[in-house]
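U., I forgot to send this yesterday:
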Amino acid sequence: MQRILVFICATFLVTACSTSKNKKKDKENSPAKYAKTITAEELKEMLYTYASDEYEGRKTGEAGQKKAIEFIKNAYVENKIPSPLGDGDYFQEIPESYFHGGIKASENVLAYIKGSEKPEELIIISAHLDHIGISKSGEINNGADDDGSGTVAVLEIAEAFKAAVNKGYGPKRSILFLHVTGEEIGLFGSRYYADVDPIFPLENTVANLNIDMIGRIDPKHRGNPNYLYLIGSDRLSKELHELSEQVNKEYVNLTFDYKYNKKNDPNRFYYRSDHYNFAKHNIPVIFYFNGTHADYHRPTDTPDKIEYELLAKRTKLIFHTAWELANREERIKVD
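Result:
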């Protein structure tokens, strides 16, 4: 009887230890842990620099835009997130001849986390780095929401994924953090990447999550700011749409507004941001958007008007969605 009791106790201890280790592992591997690295304070600190007068409105090819790409590059270097271009080169050069109307040569900025199990498959998280520059009156268009909010969101998402990598829980699929230029003058940077020089084969690109203006509240939602417009999530993949809804309910619980996703939307937002250059290649996309406001494309789009807690919450949603896309067993299907 004594031997039986010793055996039972030993078995119980082994099981308890194993359960404890599994719980610890599950906690370490939880995306919620790494989402906590995305904070309103860090987003605010970055955006007050990125959307400052020093950057002169980040017009494509101009001095302020060159400062912007250095800011983005330095953020990746500081977080030890490499570029897929190698040798410390984070810039995909786009020649002046690709543009028109006297626009000077410009650059996309690329950073990359290699997948641990399916490195050939890729999730692209994108935002445009440019804005409209200086008005004829001499006023600087800072573009804090458009698209400073998306730019700093991508940087925070990258930092969250790198925190997981540092703990040994990097994504199974690769992640490309893509900051594109020339959006305001015709989606040039994303078109160059997709049509001219895709660094990774487009057929291996699972999805594009594109972030363009997620720091403000539009007039329609003043009474309920816990929202976000989603555009394109069901256009090419029902599975992507369902995954997006499930992730939101599990982790963030925003109210999704699909008003601008309607095919007869007179604003045609589906065609007006960088995700479209991936969608036209049959790559499933989601475009995250807070809607327009009175400061859209005006010098009054400044960082003091950004809702930073809401920006952080929306950024966490996109991180969780990217995490699920990168770590699920099968890549999402294109309908």
